[in-house]
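Fold it.
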Amino acid sequence: MAWIYLFLSSFFEILGTIILKKNHGFHLAFGDSFDPKRFTTSAFVALCYIICTLFFGAAIKRLDASIVMAIWSALNIAGVATYAMIFLNEPHGLYRMLFLTLTVISIVGLILTGTKLPAK
């Protein structure tokens, strides 16, 4: 269950970051140019980050902190970078794809080495 919490935490962090990018930053209800749509979107971003933190806290209680932090960070990097390359037309050259692939390989390696296999 801890792994599910970790992946849900990462999902909500990626979702919040994507919405934050689409919203052109975080907008509060202050200032001359109040936009209710942007304020609502910013509130949704804050909710995503709160949910992310709750799931992260549940995961870190059950797994090693170093493994949780490393995997969570790498998942977020890979998720946001992949989204940006596909949907936001960010550059996706050979080296960028190579290092993104290495990040994903690192995630798999950490998952495989960070869990204890049952004794036979």
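The chain has one domain: 2-114.
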